[in-house]
Each structure stands twice: as structure tokens, then as C-alpha cells.
């Protein structure tokens, strides 16, 4: 396949939406290092290369043929190198996402000219691929839906909000009208708005540090009332694997795997296979398999009451000898009301 004559901006924008959806981006600035780690790609800074091979930065730039970053495919995995020179400013996030763009857009696999060495490209070919990677990085790091909701759209605030340089922020501002038109033309408005909704619906519990994407009244993990506020939680409490209707795929007590049948109880040991609120007056239906409490009324769930789930702060290594579970107070700790006004400036 030959490198196209012009940058495929429609393709780049579609792929950026797919990327935001695939990685469920919901926090800004985006943690690009975490994405690289998840994909198990190699990542090295120019400084590390300089130290390993006892050379200066100019030599690294000359050998790699790039003053910003470079990506190679060795037939098995990708490896990204990026220029971490502090004189360049805070360019690391954009540089790495730019290189991810080369990967995600198929630049290193789709074109014969790039399979061996990107440095062999003509200036025109290189410019096309660089423009595509820039468009991808811009629309991932600062999606249209997120930019448009900013109250302060100055380059300085855009740079601070999305963790990019003021130069990259100015490019985002300059290209916003064209990117908006592309969203409409490609009929991606609904998908790109999902990024905004994921961001706005974030909730964290300040007691157990759980993270959610619904506005609950009670924390479904620790049961505290008024402990949920906007933001990113750090703790992810594992869920038991379920079918789409919320029924467990395997009984947690007897390990019976024949659960995709009529009824909500295990046919071997009789344990409930669907997690619901134990309060009969509560209208809430099926709950997540890791919920200890109902997020609507605060009542205990069937999984928690039957011992399938332990208390959120259960510590197996520090239990008193006479107890199988930690003693949890009958009443939830009081926490004053929290102002939930979102801090998106």
C-alpha cells in the first residue's frame, strides 16, 4: 500500500474516536504512560539512550532522524523513544500520543515504505504521516466535546487543562472549527459526547476511594451516605464475572458453572446468583456484583448479607482470632454534605 498524497483527516478523526472509546478515556490530562504500559509497548527517553550509549542528544536525534520522537516495530512489538529535553517545554504527552498515533493509524504496518525505516521516506510522504499523527494526537488529548465545554478557552488554560504546550493548545484552537465539521460530517457527535459524559459522571467515595460513573446517594461499596463527590477514585473493587442480566457465571460457593438457566439461585448449593438489595421496599433491581450496599437506599445487598462479599475494609492478615470478619459498626459514619459543583474550568 502506498502512502496517500494527502493526510486522511476523516480517517484520523474516526480512529481518534475509536481510541477514546477503546481506552474509555475519562480523565484529563490523559495519562499516556499508563496507556503505553497497558499495551506493553517499549518506552525510552532520549536521555536514557544518551546514558546507555555514552553520546549526546544531537547524536540521538541524528541517528533516529527525529528531534521529537520515534517508533519502531520489530515484528513483535512497538517501542517508542521520545525527546525529554526540558528546553522543549512540556511536550512529552503530545510527543508520545503522536507516536501512538503512528501505531494506531497503522503507519508502520500498512505502508511498504515505513516497514523497514521511516527515515527512508520522502519529505512529502513524511509530512503526510506527520500531519495524520498530529491530527490524531490533537483529537485524543483535547477532544472537541471537552474543549467546547471549557469556560476559559485561552491557550494558557487549554494547555493547562489538557497537559500540552501553549503551541499545541493554539493549534487545537485554530483547528477547532474544522474538527467540529468533521464530527458532524462523519456523524460522530454521539460518540464524541460519550467522552464528555464519562468525564462529567465520574464519582469517587472519599471513604473507601472507590470510583463510579453514576450519581448515587449511597456508596455501593462501603455504604456511606454523602461520601460521593466528583473526581477520580483510585480503588477498583473486583467484580465477579456475570452474564448481561447480572447473573453470576460461576457459583462463588460451590463453583458450579451451570448458572445460565431459569431462576436466580444455584442449583447445587442454593446461594443467590444475582446481587439485589435486601430491602424489600426498595425498587432497585440487579446491582453490580461487587456492590455491598444498595446505592439508592443504603440497604445491604444479598451478596454481602450472605457472605459472598466481604466488608470493603476487610483485612485478612489482621483479624482478631475470635472473628471471621471485621466488626463493622451498625451505622454508617456521618459525613457532611459535599458541594458537587464540577471543577471543569
Shape: elongated
Question: With helices defined by DSSP (H or I, 4 residues minimum), what is the helix count?
Answer: 13
Q: State the end-to-end CA separation.
A: 45 Å
Mean pLDDT: 85
The SSE string, one letter per element, is: HHEHHEEHHHHHHHHEEEH
Question: Which stretches are low in confidence, meaning pLDDT under 50 for 5 or more residues running?
Answer: 319-343
The percent range for strand residues is 5-15%
The percent of residues in helical segments reads 25-40%
**Largest sheet, strands/sense/barrel:** 3 strands, mixed
Determine the structural class based on helices, strands and strand pairing: mainly alpha
CA-atom Rg in angstroms = 25 Å
Please give the number of β-strands: 6
Number of domains: 2
User: Which sequence of strands runs across the widest sheet?
Assistant: 1-3-2
Report on the architecture of this protein.
There is one protein chain. This protein is mainly alpha-helical. The protein has helices at residues 9-22, 32-39, 46-53, 57-64, 92-104, 107-110, 112-115, 123-141, 144-148, 155-162, 166-185, 189-200, 302-305, and strands at residues 42-45, 69-73, 78-82, 203-205, 211-212, 228-230. It folds into 2 domains: 9-198, no CATH class; 207-339, no CATH class. The protein is built from 13 helices and 6 strands. Helix 1 packs across helix 8 (123-141) and helix 3 (46-53) packs across helix 4 (57-64). The radius of gyration is 25 Å and the shape is elongated.
Amino acid at each position: 500500500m502506498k502512502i496517500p498524497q494527502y493526510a486522511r483527516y476523516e480517517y484520523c478523526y474516526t480512529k481518534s474516536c475509536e481510541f477514546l472509546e477503546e481506552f474509555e478515556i475519562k480523565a484529563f490530562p490523559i495519562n499516556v504512560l499508563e496507556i503505553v504500559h497497558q499495551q506493553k509497548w517499549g518506552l525510552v527517553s532520549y536521555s536514557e539512550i544518551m546514558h546507555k550509549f555514552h553520546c549526546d542528544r544531537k547524536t540521538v536525534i541524528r541517528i533516529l532522524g527525529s528531534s521529537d520522537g520515534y517508533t519502531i516495530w520489530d515484528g513483535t512489538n512497538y517501542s517508542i523513544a521520545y525527546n525529554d529535553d526540558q528546553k522543549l517545554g512540556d511536550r512529552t504527552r503530545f510527543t508520545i500520543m503522536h507516536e501512538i498515533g503512528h501505531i494506531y493509524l497503522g503507519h508502520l504496518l500498512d505502508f511498504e515504505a515505513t516497514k523497514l525505516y521511516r527515515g527512508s521516506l520522502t519529505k512529502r510522504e513524511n509530512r503526510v504521516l506527520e500531519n495524520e499523527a498530529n491530527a490524531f494526537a490533537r483529537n485524543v488529548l483535547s477532544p472537541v466535546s471537552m474543549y467546547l465545554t471549557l469556560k476559559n478557552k485561552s491557550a494558557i488554560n487549554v494547555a493547562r487543562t489538557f497537559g500540552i504546550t501553549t503551541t499545541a493548545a493554539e493549534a487545537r484552537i485554530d483547528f477547532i472549527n474544522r474538527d467540529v465539521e468533521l464530527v458532524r460530517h462523519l456523524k460522530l457527535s454521539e460518540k464524541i459526547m460519550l467522552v464528555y459524559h464519562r468525564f462529567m459522571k465520574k464519582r469517587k467515595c472519599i471513604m473507601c476511594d472507590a470510583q463510579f460513573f453514576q450519581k448515587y446517594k449511597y456508596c455501593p461499596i462501603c455504604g456511606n451516605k454523602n461520601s460521593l463527590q466528583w473526581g477520580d477514585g483510585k480503588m477498583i473493587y473486583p467484580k465477579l464475572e456475570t452474564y448481561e442480566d447480572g447473573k453470576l457465571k460461576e457459583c462463588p460457593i460451590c463453583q458450579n458453572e451451570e448458572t445460565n438457566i431459569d431462576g436466580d439461585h444455584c442449583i447445587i448449593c442454593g446461594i443467590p446468583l444475582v446481587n439485589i438489595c435486601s430491602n424489600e421496599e426498595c425498587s432497585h433491581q440487579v446491582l453490580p456484583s461487587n456492590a455491598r450496599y444498595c446505592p439508592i437506599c443504603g440497604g445491604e445487598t444479598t451478596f454481602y448479607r450472605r457472605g459472598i462479599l466481604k466488608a470493603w475494609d476487610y483485612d485478612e492478615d489482621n483479624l482478631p482470632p475470635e472473628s471471621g470478619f471485621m466488626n463493622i459498626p451498625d451505622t454508617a459514619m456521618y459525613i457532611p454534605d459535599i458541594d458537587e459543583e464540577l471543577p471543569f474550568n
